[in-house]
Write a structure and sequence with these properties.
alpha+beta; 2 helices
């Protein structure tokens, strides 16, 4: 690769906006942990309701206790509202 090619590519990216300060802003998130015990008791209707509030599923955990019971936790996130 010719010398100066990488700086030229970076400069072009900056000019086109992909690396501008506006696009480099860090998005702030708020999180919510929802328990679903026993496993499977979280209905589709409840998930739809949460989605309408702007929440997205960020993670999921399923646990089996010593008695064989299944329990789950759902980690939700949504963009933090500006103050």
């Amino acid at each position: 690769m010719k010398r100066g090619t990488i700086p030229a590519i970076l400069a072009a990216a900056f000019v086109t906006g992909c690396c501008s300060p506006k696009s480099a802003a860090v998005r702030q998130w708020e999180y919510k942990l929802v328990d679903s015990a026993p496993f499977g008791s979280f209905s589709q209707q409840k998930l739809d309701e949460i989605a309408k509030q702007g929440w997205e599923i960020a993670g999921f955990s399923n646990t089996v206790d010593a008695g064989g019971g299944h329990y789950s936790e759902i980690l939700l996130k949504r963009p933090k509202k500006s103050d």
